[in-house]
Amino acid sequence: MKSLIIAGREFSSRLFVGTGKFASSALMTQAIDASGTQMVTVALRRVDMDDANDTMLEAIDRTKYQLLPNTSGARDAAEAVRLSRLARAASGIEWVKLEVTPDPYYLLPDGEETLKAAKELVQDGFVVLPYINADPILAKKLQDVGCATVMPLASPIGSNQGMKTKASIEIIIEQATVPVVVDAGLGAPSHAAEAMEMGADAVLVNTAIAAANDPVQMARAFKMATEAGRTAYETGLAPKSAAANASSPLTGFLREI
Amino acid sequence: MNAVLKINGTEKTFDDGLPPTLSALLSKLQIDAATVVAEIDGEIIERKNFAQTELKDQMGIELIRFVGGG
């Protein structure tokens, strides 16, 4: 399996994992370890004054996993830029998963505000990985303003519905010159494998792992599926045909000739 | 003298005077400075400047940290 390069950084794993919704930090660290990932997403929130030292993320070994702060909760470009700068001040990390989701019900990204924030953040020296609807034109615009990847959604965040936007993601993959990371809605390892077989460069999974009965085993299953899909893509699938093509020889049958 | 800070959107009154600096405030709240980032009246304060950042009555302070997220 070829390694993935984003903004000059090399990743041997093509599975990125979100750290939300885990029942405990011990379970989270075991799951990210089992996933084989090298990049995990995190969010920024106000310190809870009633539980001021709940520092779940201290459990993450930053020498093994690159943190990718997200701008979740941002409703417009200004809020996303503010969160990105806070994340940089908190961590020194200049990478950001840019997400602008004004609608709390479907959490669909606002393309116009995302593009606006992306321009500003790229200018400010950030490596920007924008979360977008599966819109090939927007993907191209974001690529043109200097984004390091594009991250089209498979289906709404946390919905586990799989590759509902498949046809549009295929166009994005065909046209993109930056890595395409399929993010959001991948609910089963087969969904991750499907995205990778199509030629996605990576997938990002959170809920499907964190909310599984056994997140550690599910992380392992997503690792295998991501690798299987990618290996199949790099190998090239055998051709499809409408009619049958016998796998066994069509001679030497035990019947009258 | 009573002094008030708006911390994470909630007013907090200090009956025995304000902590003099951001570092002193974090100690008083028992928050490990290494795990937070701060914004005062919309300006980001770098962690290395926490000890030099003086607090004044009525300042709006945001204390933020990383949490799990997707």
Topology:
The complex is a heterodimer of chains A (257) and B (70).
Chain A (H helix, E strand, L loop, with lengths): L3 E3 L2 E3 L3 E4 L6 H11 L3 E8 L19 E4 L7 H15 L3 E4 L12 H13 L3 E6 L3 H9 L6 E2 L13 H10 L5 E3 L5 H9 L4 E4 L1 H4 L4 H21 L22
Parallel strand pairs in A: 3-4, 3-10, 4-5, 6-7, 7-8, 9-10
Antiparallel strand pairs in A: 1-2
Helix pairs in contact in A: 1-8, 2-3, 4-5, 6-8
Chain B lengths: L2 E5 L2 E5 L7 H7 L8 E4 L2 E3 L14 E9 L2
Parallel strand pairs in B: 1-5
Antiparallel strand pairs in B: 1-2, 3-4, 3-5
Q: Please, what is the CATH homologous superfamily of chain B?
A: Beta-grasp domain
Helix content of chain A: 25-40%
| Total helical segments of chain B | 1
Order of helices and strands of chain A: EEEHEEHEHEHEHEHEHH
Largest interface: A-B, 36 and 25 residues
Give the number of domains of chain A. 1
Distance between the ends of chain A: 49 Å
State Rg of chain B: 12 Å
Give the ordered list of helices and strands of chain B.
EEHEEE
The overall pLDDT of chain A, averaged over residues, is: 94
CATH architecture of chain A: Alpha-Beta Barrel
So, CATH architecture of chain B? Roll
The biggest sheet of chain B, with number of strands, parallel, antiparallel or mixed sense and barrel status, is: 5 strands, mixed
Structure classification of chain B: mainly beta
